[in-house]
Amino acid sequence: MAINKLKPMEVQNAKPGEKDYKLPDGGGLYLLVKKAGGKYWRFNYRFGGKHATLALGVYPDVPLNTARKRRDEARQMLADGKDPREIKKAEKDEPTSPTFEAVAREWHRGTMGHPEWKEITRNKILREMENHIFPAIGNKPIDTLKTRDLLPMLIVMTEQGIGATTGRVKTTMASIFRYAVQRGIVDYNPAHDLKGAIVNPKTRHRPALPLERLPELMERTVTYSGRPLTRLAVLFSLHTFVRSSELRHARWEEIDLETGLWTIPGQREEIAGVKYSDRGAKMGSAHYVPLSSQAIEVLEEIKKISGEYLLVFPGDSNPYKPMSENTVNKALRVMGYDTQADVCLHGFRAMACSALTESGLWSRDAVERQMSHQERNEVRAAYVHLAQHMQERRRMMQWWSDYLQANADKHVAPYDMKMLRVVGS
């Protein structure tokens, strides 16, 4: 009787069929390929005049050479008059399906080419699975998981105050189980019954000053006596209203002072030893920030301080690492603001959006593109993505800087600034 007939590549390349099938290796050993996708080593033998089957493990956790070794051990026990089922009694607990992590990674690989999944999104989903899902249920056979097994993890996450992440993780689990149902690995989606079990806290909007207090903010920023680069970072943030990570990880190579344009890439080159330094624009594609004359003046001052380095805003102790994510907010607190109630760095975005909208001068699309907001309507998203509105955005960003300047001494309402522009044009 021929033995050791299978080749490693045959085992590796075995694909699910319309029904379960066997690949014999000889000597009673065969690979059972399930239509649902699993590959299981089995050993058929006779003991005491009865036919029996011994499970030898799941491929690829148990490779071909290991399965053969276990077969040979079982055959030796038969020769000694013993039932091979007595070896490795733990095989009774052998998974009847792949682990949740194995299916999740397969789902993740399979959806990587999805047009809605940008690189930054794929990385975020994988990171959230590795941080939250896999430690809790990753090593469990996916067909044994019930709703009650998923809920404790979500409760812990909610108690940690990461409601937004909890919601995404719940959605990710539902998608993975849906994929498993479609593949025939499980019969139902236990994540469906999580609906209503976890109530995400209401979104807490970042504090922003009313526009009437702009003169006060401008004065306090100009007279700030702390680190000069910090003061300039606050000013530059006001003029450009970008997100914290977009600001902190800015590189000089992204900024063209001659054309007055800052191009924030979807993903930046990672700086060794700097966590999240590869983050670019939040939406995962390049974001363009037209630079007003005032913003360029601020950058010229910054260049005298950090122009010889890669980063526009290097840290105080190490110029090869970015300034702390808390630097601007700490400066605001020194200026006398409560960053939990009055204003914070992210609040500059709300202030700019409010002024731009109230002025009545700019189209919604131009404002939304400059804010780098995610358009939820797919048809509009496709249009807005192609229509960059760059000329309007250049005028708009200059107007915003002019508006900040006009509010240096006393408050000017956005709609009054509109009238000033019309009269002065």
Describe the protein in words.
- The protein has 425 residues and is α+β, with helices and mostly antiparallel strands.
- The chain has three domains: 8-89, Double Stranded RNA Binding Domain; 100-194, Orthogonal Bundle (DNA polymerase, domain 1), CATH 1.10.150; 211-424, Intergrase catalytic core (hpI Integrase, Chain A).
- The protein is built from 16 helices and seven strands.
- It has helices at residues 8-13, 64-79, 100-110, 119-137, 147-159, 163-182, 214-222, 228-240, 244-248, 293-306, 327-334, 347-359, 364-371, 378-386, 390-406, 414-424; strands spanning 21-26, 29-33, 39-47, 50-59, 255-256, 261-264, 287-290.
- Strands 1-2-3-4 form a four-stranded antiparallel beta sheet, covered by helices on one side.
- A hairpin with a 2-residue loop joins strand 1 (21-26) and strand 2 (29-33).
- It starts with 7 loop residues before the first helix and ends with a helix.
- 29% of the residues are buried.
- Mean pLDDT is 86; it is low at 375-387 and 421-425.
